Amino acid sequence: MSHRHQPSVAAAAAAPQGSAASASAAAAAAAASQSPSIPPSLEDLCVRLLTSRGLRDLAGPTAAGCGRISFYPRVPYLCPAVADKLLNSLAAGGKLTDPLLGAFTPDRCGLQCVQLENAEDLSLESLKVLKRHRLLRLTCVRLEQVNLYSLVSCLSDASKQQMVSFNLAGTSILCDKLPVIVCLSVFRSLASLNLANTELDCKCLEVICNDLRHLVHLDISKTDVVDIWPLRRMRHRLKYLHLYGVKPKQASRFLTVLSELENLVLLDISDDTSLARFGKPQVQQQVRELFSSPNFLPRLEHLDVSGNKLKLDVGLLRQFVLARPSLKFLGFAMVDEQLSGEPELPVEIAGFDTEDQLIRCLHRYRDRENYMQQTLCAVFLHTNHMFNLRERLLRATFPVLRKYSHRMQLQLAGTAVLYNLTRYQLSFKLCPAVRNTVVDLVLNAMGNFPKQQQLQKNACSPCATIASCIRPSSIGCGACRSCATVLCSSATSTWCACWWPS
Fold this sequence. Notes:
alpha/beta, Leucine-rich repeat, LRR (right-handed beta-alpha superhelix), 41% helix, Zyg-11_UBL_adapter, ZER1-like_C, ubl conjugation pathway, LRR_dom_sf
């Protein structure tokens, strides 16, 4: 069997730009995924069931018709804890529509923490129902039919006075081609603001720093900001700062501002590998001086420098980490330096050197397509000569391959990884659920890219290996029938027959 096909990831070298994501959200997801599995509560199971059925057990068309939906009279008033879960679960599953949102009226439920994260098509008219609630937190990610100005008009005066968190990532802040960031000045209690992937510029940043006096958490990743000098006005209170993909015009000025933010707990200055923010020798010297200073970010708990060419001496980096006992996480992916040869550092590291580092990358950077492309290539290289089971690593790739099911380059790298992690006799050691997931992923990849020959070869390998070593009953007849159909009808069926004549 030594002549088996070895998949290639050469075509996966070119990666598209990734989208910005909140590092704190990624950190929470990573922590949850690495902790021991906790069974969901009965309430969570009920919410999951109800939202999977589109709330048709609780709500239906009104007597007046006109496409409106309301909760049935037999449904009791929903407290904010339950109503928030139902609404946010509908949005996350892509099932929230204008009529369903209109059913959440204040006489039937209370809303406080609304998260519209997968509801791009909601109209301005349906969002006006929020004006009748007193919100504390609002997340509106990538809404296509509204902008900041129209969204603020959908909120009550009470919400504007008491809201502490506002997430507008990917939602336009332009009105008539001009930014209207002054609208945020009415949110006097705002402590957390996310404007990642918006048209925010330096003038808008200055307005934010002047008007929002309680802000401690700011995300301006992937924006048009080229100078963060206004942040100096918040240097005594700012604790969480995300600057992923921000391209400073003057790197030395950028570093000077960071050195003055003495109370920072989280700092994300990660970047894409195509950008070299700290490439000049004099800037690299400034970086080394800052990292050797004990007064530089003394309270830091989370630091992400992934994708930056810092040219840091590993010993200096180790000294920086040990001098900050509060530091818990270090993002160190897609950099030139390696930490694998060093004594183990007392922090969680997301990088490309060890299996644990790769798993953290797959969890924390899941929303960054470019990072996932590079991480899967690193996983392939890391497992190329391994012949023992790596189930944690295998499971960590599943959400990534589902999320980017229509990205050919990423699927090419992902199917090569699945081959490495299920080849030879490794499939015997996998539980049926994991085997079934692998089969589903490779069949989806083959169906989405039927004319990509290399991907077909990569996908056929784990699919046929699993099919040859298990009983049909262990993964279900449907999966086996689909597997056989795709393998037999694939453009590479002749190639498969040469390897698995049986």
